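tool_call predict_complex ligand=HMH
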Amino acid sequence: MTETFTDWLRQRSEPDWTAVVTHPFTQGLFDGLVPVTSMRSYLVQDYQFVDDFLALLGSALAKADRYSSRLAIAGSIAVVTSEENTYFQRAFDALGVGEADRVRPKLDEATVAFRELISDTNARGSYAEVLTVLTVAEWTYLEWAMRAPAALPENFVHAEWITLHNNPDFQSWVRWLCRELDRVGADLDERDRARCLRLFQHATRCELDFFNTHSP
Ligand SMILES: Cc1ncc(CO)c(N)n1
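tool_result ok
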């Protein structure tokens, strides 16, 4: 059998997976045509998602079984807390997002659902389960962003959200995540593999609901 664990997980998460990575919201981004109100609400909610996601990266860092894995995870933490965070601040300035919406906005249902999945995984998940949720979030974002045309939209709010997720470093990080989940997944019994599959499917559904919430 040549199918990897991550391919197995992804294939069993169709048709949601393809619906996420070809979502109309992403086509709107490529064309620079996401309305300002949708882009604002999407980024405001996503900043709250990123907060939870950063905590989950910390959980992965703590749960990893070797130093080289911790180094790879720490590299991603560095990006989320520097380039990605300054992107959010510049985008919020450009979109006129006030302090309250940066710090404690009213959360959409889709954001709450994602937050619950992440905090449960954070509190109770094994390293494999934490990697499963991280992999869905990062791999779906790489896959939609890689579909972007060479000519990016002019508005940096749209353009940089694409390039943050399709640059060579992000590609290597996602490749690493998949290989790491394949490595750890190889030691799981059938019951634990099935738990990862349910989580993978659930997280993929959360990604789809998140995009749907912000599509006009
Ligand atoms: C909802 C969502 N999923 C994945 C990513 C990429 O980490 C993101 N920024 N937002």
